[in-house]
Amino acid sequence: MPLIQTPIVENFQLHVVLFQTNDDLQHLGFSKEVAERIEEADSSRSIYRFFSASDAMPNKDHLDASTECIAVRLEEDDEKNRLKGFHVVQELLRDKMQAVFIESNLDASADYAFLEGFSLSCHKPQRLGNSKSSLANWTVGYRGKVSNEALEALDILCESNFIARDLVNLPQNFLNPTTYGERVRELGSELGFEVKLHDKAAIESMKMGGVLAVNRGSIEPPVFIEMHYCSSNSKNKKPIVLVGKGVTYDTGGLSLKPTKNSMDFMKADMAGSAAVVGALCALARQKADCYVIGLVAATDNRPGGDAYAPGDVITMMDGTTVEVLNTDAEGRLTLADALHFAKQFDPKLVVDLATLTGSAVAALGGEAAALMTSCDQEITKTLMKSANAVDERLVEFPLWACYGTSLKSDIADQKNVGSREAGLIIAGKFLEKYIDYPWMHIDIAGPSFNHQIKNYRGKGGSGYGVRLLLDFLKSWG
Ligand SMILES: [Zn+2]
Q1: Catalytic annotation on 332?
Q2: Which domains does the chain have, with CATH numbers?
Q3: How far, in Å, CA of 177 to CA of 160, rounded?
Q4: 300 CA to centre of ligand 1 in angstroms
Q5: What is the pLDDT of residues 436-471, one digit of tens each?
Q6: Of 48, 54, 15, which Cα lies nearest the Cα of 31?
Q7: DSSP secondary structure code for residue 1 in this structure
């Protein structure tokens, strides 16, 4: 059932009023005096709270003294309005309220952003084992200009973002390549996209040398996950392929990571693939007019007895060789095979999302992902516009030839790591060798995981990429 319903909620505990001007407030039932008081209050305050709605809005006889009321001033900026949605959810959580009614006479777009921030803040973190869920079931009513259709689309968007968050948050002892593949198959049959799982034998017969090398130290076999969604009215004849890094756990391999603030959250090293799965779920539920394929090479990276070692030379699926100098630069090896695999579909565009480099985090923190692309300006502009619209921001980095020189190897076609400086671009240069189609590479190492709750993106997996991909596929393709 969608979180936000249009019928009026009975016995709600909190009445939320969205406004921009004094007139809006009076129109919604505030007395002139109260409206003026709110207007005069410091405009930097995002919400105004009254402990009795019937005092604040005496003209409304369905409100009683025990109902509380919050007035929220919305702005022109969608992101500010999403953040206000988050703040209202914090009030609800703090006071353990469960039923809320939101009323507005503003334009649909301002309300929508507020409701989006509100809904995205209502993610119930999945608790494992015998733990009980920490969030109660809420009843949320809304009266305003956002249509039922838009509310339904918003619900699909949020649920799909939550699917990605939940996948990221599952520890490796709950999500390995096999259980990951099974979960995606369940989602596919439930929501309407096709899922093909290639097991280790199939991966061996396809000679995916990158995936197999990374997997060698593990006791869990790899799984290559292929997802297909094609609408009969698809706007694009050639598919758009989404590739996600799916390293279900990254110890670094023999180039072992330290535990603190490093290996301890490496369950999140499949966040790129979780975004791809989330996007496929949403497209299938929306019955979107497009043809999209999702690819994930799922494996973990461990230092077992047979693990690949620094100094090894491996042969990739495309037949080229790589000198592995750091086994912790494993994501690019798995992605390279997936990118090569994508060629058989003659794709219109390939977008990969990957928690690829610490260098991307050093450059941008958690505030944005790094984009590198071989596409023309027009597609890039469309993607950037989506990134700004949904506030899953991107900063473009160049793929200049000079950045590729440090990948030269004396004994193989390239090395898997180059110089330390500009490591995020060098990773992009490595991947570029495996494409022959328009391509966008998005390094999401920063924004894919939040160590603290700061806003509606939650704590843990943020689901970064789902909203970006959906907005982009809607506006292009
Ligand atoms: Zn790694």
Answers
A1: yes
A2: 4-143 (3.40.220.10), 156-475 (3.40.630.10)
A3: 20
A4: 10
A5: 999 999 999 999 999 999 999 999 999 999 999 999
A6: 54
A7: -
